[in-house]
Task: inverse folding
């Protein structure tokens, strides 16, 4: 998702000011004409289907989406399966959303290929499709919103190379191979590590997107490859699993960890040294811009940016208390 416009969160006050100005300039968005209500008076129904509903990442997505749905007067439902491997439940949710009269679906794909037919079928029936976070193999998507995953992977690779070791032996704990964003992040990291002759990738594994699976994979990898001195992992659940493995082994002093996403636990791990760097995405913006884009599509406004890159920040112990990093580490409501 290279060369895309980057978005940063703005304050609620600024968002409201922009909306007021837009409404004034557009004559109230044309909701009333010659004293008669238009079809656009009806709240458009938008269903956001996430990869799961439990993580802090997705809770922040929902928070941004809810804020936008209030500002744009949209009827929003946020749903997702219990775990990030259950693409079939996502497909069922897509079908149910269509049957329930959804005007738009905001979607994050668990499986790039296996979710494609359900998304295409929904689009065939006139439902507008917006992708956030994780892409799906469909040409019926109106726009794609999320992290530049290749660039984020490069950022992880640079963090892995930031140590002073003469030799850098890297172990990679990724999540499901079928999820496009994780694979793209790993590719960005791999291409970056290839540029430094100190670095060797000892092993790369794909664990289930759960804490226990990632922890078990990490413990097994470190037992079999004691030379590993850097671990890289690519989402919230695997980051916690790797961090807990480092805690159990008391290996924070000899193994550097580059992880993704943030919650209270991973931030504590950054403070205490089990994690050395966090690549922090902007899920609030994904949710907000996703609903905003659905509004534009459903009301006939042109989508000039088909791929929108939300902000990503490298957070280490030295900068974690800066205002910019604090806004990324915690939800917008918690830091305003």
Result:
């Amino acid at each position: 998702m290279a060369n895309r416009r980057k978005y940063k969160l703005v304050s609620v006050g600024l968002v409201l000011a922009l909306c007021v100005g837009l409404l004034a300039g557009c004559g109230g968005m044309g909701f009333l004409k010659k004293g008669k209500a238009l079809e656009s008076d009806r709240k458009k129904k938008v269903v956001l289907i996430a990869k799961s509903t439990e993580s802090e990442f997705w809770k922040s997505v929902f928070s941004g989406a809810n804020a936008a749905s209030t500002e744009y007067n949209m009827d929003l439902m946020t749903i997702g399966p219990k775990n990030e491997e259950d693409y079939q439940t996502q497909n069922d949710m897509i079908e149910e959303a269509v049957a329930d009269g959804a005007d738009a679906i905001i979607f994050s794909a668990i499986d790039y290929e296996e979710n494609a037919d359900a998304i295409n079928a929904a689009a065939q029936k006139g439902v507008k499709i917006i992708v956030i976070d994780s892409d799906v193999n469909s040409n019926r998507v109106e726009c794609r919103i999320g992290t530049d995953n290749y660039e984020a992977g490069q950022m992880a690779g640079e963090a892995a190379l930031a140590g002073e070791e003469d030799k850098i032996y890297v172990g990679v704990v990724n999540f499901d191979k079928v999820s496009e964003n994780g694979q793209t992040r790993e590719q960005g990291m791999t291409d970056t590590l290839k540029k430094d002759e100190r670095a060797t990738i000892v092993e790369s594994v794909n664990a289930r997107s759960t804490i226990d699976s990632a922890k078990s994979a990490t413990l097994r990898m470190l037992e079999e490859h004691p030379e590993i001195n850097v671990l890289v992992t690519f989402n919230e659940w695997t980051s916690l699993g790797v961090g807990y493995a480092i805690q159990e082994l008391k290996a924070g002093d000899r193994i550097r960890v580059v992880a993704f996403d943030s919650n209270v636990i991973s931030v504590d791990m950054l403070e205490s040294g089990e994690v050395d760097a966090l690549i922090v995405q902007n899920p609030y913006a994904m949710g907000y811009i996703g609903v905003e884009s659905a509004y534009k599509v459903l009301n006939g406004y042109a989508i000039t940016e088909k791929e929108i890159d939300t902000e990503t920040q490298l957070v280490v112990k030295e900068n974690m208390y800066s205002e910019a990093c604090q806004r990324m580490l915690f939800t917008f409501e918690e830091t305003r």
Q: What stands out?
A: The first helix runs from residue 12 to 25.
